[in-house]
């Protein structure tokens, strides 16, 4: 009797026991081919925006003892903005010729993103054999932030790996190593510097020894080797402190682009800063004992605010929010609602909203979706936490936390099995617990 080759044979019933297991096999080809396309086709093809050329040129000048900070900031081309410590770390890229160096840098960032993907799975107790593995891999490499990091050949993939290493080590109380991972990223690009506050509110002060010590030490090492290190502070920092009106999705950047009055921009920034402050306080007050949820959610809110409120925020910074977005698998997640994912669509999708037919509307949708996405996400967090707090205060249970009683039975990736939550209308009812073999298996 003829039997189909193994590769084409349908899964037998004893293997495909759940829809999740079937979906896992369906997702892997999409995920793998998407990764290959992004790395070997899109990234190698490149784009008119080239973040790597100024980095390579600056590294070449540094290795040859010539000035590095010579950019003309009147142009809108990518500029070299790394501090002297970052120049020292990244200078070896110019040892070889440009094209090969760029390809290797793409490979380095792709490898860093893949390793960060694995660490992200392990952080939330998923394995490679779970349906979450291909789903997360596909989602990451379909996002604007990963695609443009690779296409523009930026360092953000390495920063994401540093962030995941920091979170893992912080949760394991390996404070000096956590600070070293964070400090190395800050030495190159200060995107993750706000995460020092996470260590501070947890009382893990040793993180600051290496978190600040590493970039300071690298700056001290780079200073005598550089021709013009002082120009970073006199030439580059003043430029970074300005709010430019192009390629800038921060409130100030889009406000300047659309000609909003300064007082209105400042008002929006102050209001959103208040929203962030209240959210961070509620997280610290009621969730700091739930370490995984607290660290990932607190970090996500902090980083989102750092993209939206200061002088510069670019769409592909959103890569640093992947740990926050993964909290959706936790029972007390603030992201289990559709407005949160509408916000995430705004700053994660690779779709372009420019329209030939409705040019003005399409341009507004394209330019504002990131700003509105970050802002809406912060508002969602504020509203979810605020609603939980007000409900708990009204019911007199603040001393026990602000999560409603039904949430204790909600699905969570950290559980060995998934359990169906009790109805919200009857939180105190003693429902019979199904035998273990009758419960839905976890996505492990």
UniProtKB/TrEMBL annotation:
Residue stretches spanning the membrane: 103-120, 126-143, 150-171, 177-200, 207-225, 263-284, 291-309, 338-355, 367-385
Organism domain of life: Bacteria
Pfam family membership, one: GT87
Positions with biased composition (Basic and acidic residues): 411-444
InterPro entries according to UniProt: GT87
Location(s) in or outside the cell: Cell membrane
Tagged with keyword Isomerase: no
Main location: membrane
Gene Ontology cellular component list: plasma membrane
Alphabetical keyword list: Cell membrane, Membrane, Transferase, Transmembrane, Transmembrane helix
Topology of the protein relative to the lipid bilayer: Multi-pass membrane protein
MF (Gene Ontology): hexosyltransferase activity
Protein name: DUF2029 domain-containing protein
Source organism per UniProt: Nocardia coubleae
Phylogenetic placement of the source organism: Bacteria, Bacillati, Actinomycetota, Actinomycetes, Mycobacteriales
């Amino acid at each position: 009797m003829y039997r189909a080759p193994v590769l084409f044979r349908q899964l037998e019933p004893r293997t495909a026991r759940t829809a999740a297991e079937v979906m896992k096999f369906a997702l892997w080809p999409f995920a793998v081919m998407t990764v290959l396309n992004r790395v070997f086709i899109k990234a190698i093809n490149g784009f008119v925006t080239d973040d790597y050329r100024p980095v390579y040129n600056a590294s070449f000048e540094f290795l040859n003892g010539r000035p590095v900070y010579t950019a003309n900031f009147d142009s809108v081309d990518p500029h070299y903005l790394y501090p002297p410590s970052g120049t020292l770390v990244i200078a070896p890229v110019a040892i070889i010729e440009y094209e090969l160096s760029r390809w290797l840098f793409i490979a380095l960032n792709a490898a860093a993103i893949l390793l960060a993907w694995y660490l992200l799975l392990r952080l939330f107790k998923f394995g490679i054999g779970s349906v979450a593995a291909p789903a997360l891999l596909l989602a990451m490499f379909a996002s604007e932030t990963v695609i443009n990091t690779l296409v523009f050949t930026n360092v953000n993939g390495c920063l994401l790996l540093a962030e995941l290493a920091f979170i893992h080590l912080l949760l394991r109380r390996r404070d000096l190593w956590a600070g070293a991972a964070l400090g190395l990223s800050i030495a190159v690009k200060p995107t993750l510097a706000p995460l020092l506050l996470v260590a501070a509110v947890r009382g893990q002060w040793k993180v600051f020894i290496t978190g600040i010590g590493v970039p300071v030490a690298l700056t001290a090492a780079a200073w005598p080797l550089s021709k013009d290190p002082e120009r970073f502070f006199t030439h580059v920092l003043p430029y970074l402190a300005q709010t430019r009106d192009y390629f800038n999705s921060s409130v100030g950047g889009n406000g300047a682009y659309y000609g909003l009055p300064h007082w209105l921009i400042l008002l929006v920034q102050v209001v959103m800063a208040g929203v962030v402050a209240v959210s961070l306080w509620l997280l610290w007050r009621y969730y700091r004992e739930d370490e995984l949820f607290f660290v990932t959610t607190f970090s996500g809110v902090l980083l989102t605010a750092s993209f939206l409120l200061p002088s510069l925020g670019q769409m592909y910074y959103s890569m640093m929010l992947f740990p926050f977005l993964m909290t959706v698998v936790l029972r007390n997640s603030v992201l289990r609602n559709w407005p949160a994912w509408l916000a995430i669509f705004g700053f994660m999708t690779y779709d372009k909203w420019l329209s030939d037919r409705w040019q003005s509307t399409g341009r507004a949708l394209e330019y504002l979706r990131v700003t509105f996405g970050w802002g809406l996400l912060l508002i969602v967090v504020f509203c979810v936490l605020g609603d939980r707090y007000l409900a708990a205060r009204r019911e007199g249970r603040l001393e026990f936390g602000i999560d409603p009683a039904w949430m204790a039975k909600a699905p969570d990736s950290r559980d060995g099995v998934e359990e169906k939550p009790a109805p919200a209308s009857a939180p105190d009812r003693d429902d019979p617990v199904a035998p273990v073999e009758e419960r839905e298996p976890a996505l492990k």
